[in-house]
Write a structure and sequence with these properties.
Blueprint: E1 7-11, H1 16-27, E2 31-36, H2 39-49, E3 58-62, H3 69-83, E4 88-91, H4 106-134, E5 137-141, H5 154-174, E6 180-186, E7 189-190, H6 192-205, H7 209-216, E8 226-227, H8 228-239, E9 250-253
Parallel strand pairs: 1-2, 1-4, 2-3, 4-5, 5-6, 6-9, 7-8
Helix pairs in contact: 1-2, 1-8, 3-4, 4-5, 6-7
Length: 268
C-alpha cells in the first residue's frame, strides 16, 4: 500500500500504460483520477477500480485535449473537489508524429508537439500548486525515442526528447518546494498503439503480430517487449516514497535496447 492516502491524476488513462498504472496505483491504495479522450474506455478502467462498499476511489474525466488549459484545469479541479488533494501526476498522454522532416506538414508537426509535449506541460503547470501543497511527484512518460531517433518519426522523436528537458526543468525549479519530477523512457511495450505499429509490419512482411514483436526486439538483449504492467510498476516506484531522493532522473525500461552497440551487430 505504497500510495495509501494519495491521490493520482493519470493522463492517457484509457488504455495501455495509463490504464495499467491506474490499476496498479489503485491496488497500492491511491485514489485515482483518469483523464483521456475516450469516455467509454475511461469508464471501463474506472469500473475495474471501484472499491466494494461504495467508497469512491476513482473519477473519470473525459478531456478532448489535455493541452488545453481549461480541460487540464478541469481534471485537476476534479481531483481536488472529489478527493481534497493531488499528490501525483502521471503525464502519460502522447502519440502522433510520423514522417521524416521533409514529409511532415506544419499541421502534423504541431499535432505531435501538442499530443506529446504540450499535454505534459499544461497538465503539470495546472497541477503544480496542488503538488506543492502535497509535496508531490510527477512521472513523465517519454520513450527511448527521447534518447535516440527511429526512422521517419521526426515529430515524435523531437517531442519525446523535449519531455526529458521539461522534466529536468521542473525538477530544478520545484525541488525546493518539495515536488519531484522524473522521466521514464520505455522501449517497445505491448499496448494498443504498439499493436497498430506491429500490424503495419504484418502487412509489409506477411507475418503475424507476434512475429512482428519478435522482429522489432530481435536485437534487444531481453528479446521481448515490455508489458504495460511492467512499466506501471516503474511508474509506481517513481510516484512513491521508495524514490524519495530521486528527481530530474531519466529511467530507461527497454529490455536493454539502448545498451546495444549498433556497429557490432554484424558480429552476432
Amino acid at each position: 500500500m505504497r500510495l495509501q492516502g494519495k491521490v493520482a491524476l493519470i493522463t492517457g488513462a484509457g488504455t495501455g500504460i495509463g490504464a495499467a498504472a491506474a490499476r496498479r496505483f489503485a491496488a497500492e491504495g491511491a485514489r485515482v483520477v483518469l483523464a483521456g479522450r475516450r469516455k467509454e474506455l475511461l469508464d471501463e478502467v474506472a469500473a475495474q477500480l471501484d472499491a466494494p462498499g461504495g467508497e469512491e476511489r476513482v473519477a473519470a474525466v473525459a478531456c478532448a485535449d489535455m493541452a488545453e488549459t481549461a480541460q487540464a484545469r478541469a481534471a485537476v479541479d476534479s481531483a481536488l473537489a472529489r478527493f481534497g488533494r493531488l499528490d501525483v501526476v502521471v503525464a502519460n498522454a502522447g502519440g502522433h508524429g510520423f514522417g521524416a522532416l521533409a514529409e511532415t506538414s506544419d499541421a502534423d508537426w504541431r499535432l505531435s508537439m501538442t499530443a506529446n509535449l504540450d499535454t505534459c506541460f499544461v497538465t503539470c503547470r495546472e497541477a503544480m500548486p496542488a503538488l506543492i501543497e502535497a509535496r508531490g511527484a510527477i512521472v513523465v512518460v517519454s520513450s527511448i525515442a527521447g534518447l535516440a531517433a527511429g526512422p521517419t518519426v521526426a515529430g515524435y522523436v523531437t517531442a519525446k526528447h523535449a519531455l526529458i528537458g521539461l522534466t529536468r526543468s521542473i525538477a530544478r525549479d520545484y525541488g525546493r518546494h518539495g515536488v519531484r519530477a522524473n522521466c521514464l523512457c520505455p522501449g517497445w511495450v505491448r499496448t494498443p498503439m504498439a499493436d497498430g505499429e506491429m500490424d503495419e509490419l504484418t502487412e509489409r512482411h506477411g507475418i503475424s503480430r507476434e512475429q512482428a514483436y519478435s522482429l522489432v526486439t530481435k536485437d534487444v538483449p531481453l528479446g521481448r517487449p515490455a508489458t504495460a504492467e511492467e512499466i506501471a510498476s516503474i511508474c509506481l516506484f517513481l510516484a512513491s516514497d521508495d524514490s524519495a531522493i530521486m528527481t530530474g532522473s531519466v529511467l530507461v525500461a527497454d529490455g536493454g535496447a539502448t545498451a546495444v552497440d549498433l556497429p557490432t551487430l554484424a558480429f552476432v
